[in-house]
Every structure is written in structure tokens, then in C-alpha cells.
Amino acid sequence: MDAALKALAEPRRREILRIVWDHEVAASDIAAHFDVTRSAISQHLSVLREADLVVERREGTHRYYRAKPETVAELRAFLDDYWTSGLGRLRVAAEAAERRRRDR
Amino acid sequence: MDAALKALAEPRRREILRIVWDHEVAASDIAAHFDVTRSAISQHLSVLREADLVVERREGTHRYYRAKPETVAELRAFLDDYWTSGLGRLRVAAEAAERRRRDR
DNA sequence: CTCGTGCGTTAGTAATCGCTTACATTTGCG
DNA sequence: CGCAAATGTAAGCGATTACTAACGCACGAG
């Protein structure tokens, strides 16, 4: 999950994920969208695959990538929880105030 | 916005932002939560401040930090849009298919 | 079997990151 | 003023990042 968020902190990878969101796209077709080398894209795809954000299917000499909706959904849920889990935050802040009072 | 997402890709900074979510907390109180140096936390706070995710208020020798809800909301909106903006994705995928057909 | 194509992998590089240690700055207090 | 507390800043370090260039490998066509 942490790996997924880190992977999407990179704009290029966000764009790649968009491209393969609901279609399988071959690596070279993905690379055609960018000004960088195929190699760079291949490495980005590795990062996305290791973060489990995309899946790869091989067919002949081609390699098709597609977003993995489960992981995307998990990441989304993780963030939604982050924005809204106020209880944990309040507790931690209260502890800080408490500690400050005690240590003086 | 990009800076904000990048800032939150770091677990420590996510935790810091949580701590100052709805309370002003002094730098040293924030640092007390972690095993790393005050200095490291100070640098994390700089990153968060430059990403406009927190604001700083000085009072005497203290420096109080608090999350900036506007930026958090913007980031959240940006991501919500990312997850759901399907039209752009379809267009891009269609272009890829088109290009592939043309180039053969 | 051999050659071109599609892609990954390796090696190398400049930049950035997260961290520590040491020093600087500001503020309040006696 | 002189010292201590709260905090930032600077310098340096090992790890990682995003990239390029070059090579390697598997597959399909002839």
C-alpha cells in the first residue's frame, strides 16, 4: 500500500496508470506517449508492477499492461480513511498536550 | 499539488500531518512522537510547509504547526478526480490503438 | 537457422532524500 | 548582559530515484 502511494507520487507513473486504466496496452504503445526512452517507461512499469498497481500479460513478443483495480481501490480506501479518521488524530494531539503538561 | 502528493508519499510526514490535523502542535511536541532527531522532524516540517500542507505560527520561542485544510482538500479533490476521470483515460487509450493501427 | 522486433535488464550518472551531528538564531529570564 | 530553551540551518553521508545508452533475450517470419 505504501509502495502504491509512493509509486503514484511520480507524475509520469500516474499518467501511465491512466493509460492502462481500463484497457490492456502494449509497452511500446505506452512509451509512445512520452518523450523519454522506452527503457525509462519499462522501469516505471516495473515499479507499478511491484506496487501491484498493474498486471502484465505476455503474448508473443508483446507485453500488455493493465491497471489492477483491486489495488487501486485499496489505495483509494487507504487514503479515504486517512482523510477521515479523525479519532486517531484527536487522541494523538491530546497525548501531546498531556505530555507537555507532565514534562514541565 | 504535485508537491503535496509527493510530501505525503513519506509515511513519517503523513503521521506528522495527522498530529497537527486539527490542533496546533509545537515542533518539539511533534518530534516527541518519533525516534528520529528533532532536526529530521524540522526538515519534514519544512517540506510540509513548502507543500502548503501546514502553516506555522510563531509565539515566543515556540513554533506551532497546524494542517492547512484548504490544501488537504485540494489534494483530496485532485485524487478523487484522478480516480474517476474516465473520459481522459478512454481517449488516451483510443489514441494508442489508433496510432498502432496507423504505424503498421 | 537466422534476422528483426518488442521489451527487459544492466551499468553508470546526476540529482534528490532522509538522516545525523554540529552550529546558528531568536526569545525569554535572571 | 549572559545563559538556557526552542528551533532552524548547514554540511555531509549512504541510499534511492529517474534517466540514458548499451546489451541480452525470446519470439515469430522467412
Structural commentary:
2 copies of one chain form a homodimer. The first copy, chain A, has 104 residues and is α+β, with helices and mostly antiparallel strands. Helices cover 65% and strands 13% of the residues of chain A. The first copy, chain A, contains 6 helices and 3 strands. The first copy, chain A, has helices spanning 2-8, 11-19, 27-31, 38-50, 69-84, 86-103; strands at 25-26, 54-59, 62-67. The first copy, chain A, has a 3-stranded antiparallel β-sheet. In chain A, β2 and β3 form a beta hairpin. The longest helix of chain A is centred in the C-terminal third of the chain and has 18 residues, at 86-103. The first copy, chain A, is elongated and about 50 Å long. Chain A starts with a helix and ends with a helix. The model of chain A is unreliable at 93-104 (pLDDT under 50). Chain A binds chain B through residues 2, 5-6, 8-9, 11, 14, 18-23, 25-26, 29-30, 32-33, 72, 76, 79, 82-83, 86, 88-90, 92-93, 96-97, 99-100, and chain B through 2, 5-6, 8-9, 11, 14, 18-23, 25-26, 29-30, 32-33, 72, 76, 79, 82-83, 86, 88-90, 92-93, 96-97, 99-100. The structure holds a DNA duplex (30 and 30 nucleotides).
